[in-house]
Known about the structure:
Layout lengths: L5 E17 L2 H13 L7 E7 L2 E9 L3 H14 L4 E14 L9 H11 L4 E6 L3 E7 L3 H11 L3
Antiparallel strand pairs: 1-3, 1-4, 2-3, 4-6, 5-6
Amino acid sequence: xxxxxxxxxxxxxxxxxxxxxxxxxxxxxxxxxxxxxxxxxxxxxxxxxxxxxxxxxxxxxxxxxxxxxxxxxxxxxxxxxxxxxxxxxxxxxxxxxxxxxxxxxxxxxxxxxxxxxxxxxxxxxxxxxxxxxxxxxxxxxxxxxxxxxxxxxx
Length: 154
């Protein structure tokens, strides 16, 4: 069995990052409740380390949900004016997966080396035991896929 079995692409992804937000899991829960109540599906989530009473996190949604999430983010700024919001739309999520990735050292190093060799603009990374997902700008997707395939060629 090949180490990397599949490379999936999800197009039209928007990244939202909230910085200087309260470092409080209740706050994070409330943010995602507001998004869920609006019927919006969140995909990737990554939290920044806390710095005092502030923290931050990023998450992705479909580009189709850009305006509704921006409206929610504006409400969050009204509640906590210190929160900084950044948005990047038109990205692609590139997911590398394989059962044999579990417990195999160096897989992420190879994936990231491939992305670096393609000079990719990687906006976010999330992982699990059998998946590595990277949010990249759309124009870099084909080059990153080719570089990953080359890196893992047997």
